[in-house]
Structure prediction request, 181 residues.
Amino acid sequence: MKDLETKFQAMRKSINTTEEAFRLYDALPVVQIEEMMGMWKGSGFPTGHTMDGALETFNWYGKEFEDADHVHPLVFRSLFGTLFKVNPALMPVRLATLIPSKPFGFLKYIFLPLRFFFQAWSSKARVRLTEFRGKVTATMVYDQLPIHDVFRRVNDKTLLGCMDYKGMGQFFFFVLEKVEP
Prediction:
Protein backbone atom coordinates (compact mmCIF):
# COMPACT_ATOMS: atom_id res chain seq x y z
CA MET A 1 0.00 0.00 0.00
CA LYS A 2 2.85 2.39 0.79
CA ASP A 3 4.28 1.83 -2.70
CA LEU A 4 0.92 2.80 -4.20
CA GLU A 5 0.80 6.01 -2.13
CA THR A 6 4.34 6.96 -3.15
CA LYS A 7 3.57 6.22 -6.80
CA PHE A 8 0.37 8.28 -6.59
CA GLN A 9 2.12 11.32 -5.11
CA ALA A 10 4.90 11.18 -7.69
CA MET A 11 2.51 10.71 -10.60
CA ARG A 12 0.17 13.44 -9.33
CA LYS A 13 2.92 15.98 -9.87
CA SER A 14 3.82 14.76 -13.36
CA ILE A 15 0.42 13.96 -14.92
CA ASN A 16 -0.78 16.49 -17.49
CA THR A 17 -3.34 14.64 -19.62
CA THR A 18 -6.49 12.57 -19.27
CA GLU A 19 -4.72 9.53 -20.74
CA GLU A 20 -1.95 9.74 -18.12
CA ALA A 21 -4.54 10.19 -15.36
CA PHE A 22 -6.43 7.10 -16.54
CA ARG A 23 -3.23 5.02 -16.43
CA LEU A 24 -2.96 5.84 -12.74
CA TYR A 25 -6.71 5.63 -12.07
CA ASP A 26 -7.04 2.20 -13.71
CA ALA A 27 -4.22 0.82 -11.54
CA LEU A 28 -5.96 1.83 -8.29
CA PRO A 29 -8.25 -0.48 -6.30
CA VAL A 30 -12.01 -0.02 -6.08
CA VAL A 31 -13.89 1.68 -3.25
CA GLN A 32 -16.84 0.22 -1.30
CA ILE A 33 -19.83 2.37 -0.35
CA GLU A 34 -19.11 2.07 3.39
CA GLU A 35 -15.66 3.61 2.85
CA MET A 36 -17.22 6.79 1.47
CA MET A 37 -19.04 7.88 4.62
CA GLY A 38 -18.00 11.15 6.26
CA MET A 39 -16.58 14.49 5.18
CA TRP A 40 -13.94 14.66 2.44
CA LYS A 41 -11.73 17.62 1.54
CA GLY A 42 -11.37 18.07 -2.19
CA SER A 43 -8.53 19.30 -4.37
CA GLY A 44 -7.78 19.47 -8.05
CA PHE A 45 -5.97 16.93 -10.18
CA PRO A 46 -4.99 18.97 -13.27
CA THR A 47 -5.12 17.22 -16.65
CA GLY A 48 -5.70 20.17 -18.97
CA HIS A 49 -9.47 20.08 -18.49
CA THR A 50 -11.40 23.37 -18.64
CA MET A 51 -12.67 22.61 -15.12
CA ASP A 52 -9.15 22.46 -13.66
CA GLY A 53 -9.30 25.00 -10.83
CA ALA A 54 -13.01 25.77 -11.37
CA LEU A 55 -14.21 24.45 -8.02
CA GLU A 56 -11.31 26.05 -6.16
CA THR A 57 -12.24 29.38 -7.80
CA PHE A 58 -15.44 29.32 -5.75
CA ASN A 59 -13.81 28.13 -2.48
CA TRP A 60 -14.75 24.47 -2.85
CA TYR A 61 -14.17 22.50 0.34
CA GLY A 62 -15.21 18.97 -0.69
CA LYS A 63 -18.04 16.43 -0.37
CA GLU A 64 -20.02 14.92 2.49
CA PHE A 65 -21.45 11.40 2.53
CA GLU A 66 -24.03 10.96 5.32
CA ASP A 67 -25.26 7.56 4.11
CA ALA A 68 -25.82 5.84 0.76
CA ASP A 69 -28.92 7.92 0.00
CA HIS A 70 -27.85 11.29 1.42
CA VAL A 71 -24.78 12.86 -0.16
CA HIS A 72 -23.79 16.52 -0.46
CA PRO A 73 -21.72 16.70 -3.67
CA LEU A 74 -20.65 20.34 -3.32
CA VAL A 75 -19.51 21.71 0.02
CA PHE A 76 -17.91 25.17 0.02
CA ARG A 77 -16.17 27.34 2.62
CA SER A 78 -17.37 30.90 3.23
CA LEU A 79 -14.95 33.79 3.59
CA PHE A 80 -15.40 33.39 7.36
CA GLY A 81 -14.58 29.67 7.31
CA THR A 82 -18.03 28.15 7.78
CA LEU A 83 -19.03 25.29 5.50
CA PHE A 84 -22.18 25.37 3.39
CA LYS A 85 -23.72 22.99 0.86
CA VAL A 86 -24.70 23.96 -2.68
CA ASN A 87 -27.25 22.55 -5.11
CA PRO A 88 -25.18 21.53 -8.17
CA ALA A 89 -28.22 22.03 -10.43
CA LEU A 90 -28.00 25.78 -9.68
CA MET A 91 -24.32 26.04 -10.60
CA PRO A 92 -23.02 26.72 -14.14
CA VAL A 93 -21.49 23.25 -14.45
CA ARG A 94 -22.02 22.94 -18.22
CA LEU A 95 -20.40 26.35 -18.75
CA ALA A 96 -17.38 25.27 -16.68
CA THR A 97 -16.91 22.31 -19.02
CA LEU A 98 -16.61 24.71 -21.96
CA ILE A 99 -14.76 27.77 -20.61
CA PRO A 100 -11.70 27.66 -18.33
CA SER A 101 -12.60 29.38 -15.06
CA LYS A 102 -9.13 29.83 -13.56
CA PRO A 103 -8.84 33.41 -14.89
CA PHE A 104 -12.10 34.27 -13.14
CA GLY A 105 -10.93 33.98 -9.52
CA PHE A 106 -12.68 37.25 -8.70
CA LEU A 107 -16.02 35.39 -9.09
CA LYS A 108 -15.48 33.95 -5.61
CA TYR A 109 -16.19 37.39 -4.17
CA ILE A 110 -19.49 37.52 -6.05
CA PHE A 111 -20.50 33.90 -5.41
CA LEU A 112 -19.80 33.75 -1.68
CA PRO A 113 -21.98 36.73 -0.64
CA LEU A 114 -24.77 35.39 -2.91
CA ARG A 115 -24.37 31.78 -1.74
CA PHE A 116 -27.87 31.72 -0.22
CA PHE A 117 -29.31 31.59 -3.75
CA PHE A 118 -27.31 28.41 -4.45
CA GLN A 119 -27.46 26.66 -1.08
CA ALA A 120 -28.91 23.20 -0.65
CA TRP A 121 -30.88 22.33 2.44
CA SER A 122 -31.10 18.64 1.60
CA SER A 123 -28.82 16.10 -0.04
CA LYS A 124 -28.41 16.30 -3.82
CA ALA A 125 -26.80 12.94 -4.62
CA ARG A 126 -26.50 9.32 -3.54
CA VAL A 127 -23.76 6.70 -3.75
CA ARG A 128 -24.05 3.35 -5.49
CA LEU A 129 -21.75 0.65 -6.85
CA THR A 130 -21.38 0.92 -10.63
CA GLU A 131 -19.13 -0.56 -13.28
CA PHE A 132 -16.69 1.89 -14.87
CA ARG A 133 -13.63 1.03 -16.93
CA GLY A 134 -14.00 -2.66 -16.10
CA LYS A 135 -14.30 -2.38 -12.30
CA VAL A 136 -17.28 -2.11 -9.93
CA THR A 137 -16.67 0.75 -7.50
CA ALA A 138 -18.40 3.42 -5.39
CA THR A 139 -19.99 6.10 -7.56
CA MET A 140 -21.71 9.31 -6.50
CA VAL A 141 -24.83 9.81 -8.65
CA TYR A 142 -26.15 13.37 -8.80
CA ASP A 143 -29.93 13.72 -8.34
CA GLN A 144 -30.58 16.46 -10.91
CA LEU A 145 -27.65 16.33 -13.33
CA PRO A 146 -26.29 13.60 -15.65
CA ILE A 147 -23.10 13.32 -13.57
CA HIS A 148 -21.43 10.33 -11.93
CA ASP A 149 -18.31 10.79 -9.80
CA VAL A 150 -16.53 7.42 -9.86
CA PHE A 151 -13.93 6.68 -7.17
CA ARG A 152 -10.76 4.63 -6.78
CA ARG A 153 -8.75 4.24 -3.57
CA VAL A 154 -5.20 5.50 -3.14
CA ASN A 155 -5.28 4.61 0.58
CA ASP A 156 -7.78 4.61 3.47
CA LYS A 157 -7.80 8.41 3.54
CA THR A 158 -7.30 9.38 -0.11
CA LEU A 159 -9.49 8.80 -3.16
CA LEU A 160 -9.05 9.68 -6.81
CA GLY A 161 -12.34 10.71 -8.40
CA CYS A 162 -13.29 10.81 -12.06
CA MET A 163 -16.29 12.93 -13.06
CA ASP A 164 -18.29 11.37 -15.88
CA TYR A 165 -20.65 14.09 -17.14
CA LYS A 166 -22.88 13.07 -20.03
CA GLY A 167 -21.98 15.13 -23.09
CA MET A 168 -18.66 16.38 -21.73
CA GLY A 169 -15.86 15.58 -24.14
CA GLN A 170 -13.16 15.00 -21.50
CA PHE A 171 -13.26 13.36 -18.06
CA PHE A 172 -12.48 15.55 -15.03
CA PHE A 173 -10.31 14.26 -12.18
CA PHE A 174 -10.09 15.35 -8.54
CA VAL A 175 -8.78 14.10 -5.19
CA LEU A 176 -10.69 13.61 -1.93
CA GLU A 177 -8.95 13.35 1.44
CA LYS A 178 -10.85 12.09 4.49
CA VAL A 179 -11.49 14.67 7.21
CA GLU A 180 -11.22 13.18 10.68
CA PRO A 181 -14.14 14.15 12.98
Summary: The radius of gyration is 15 Å. The longest strand covers residues 147-155.
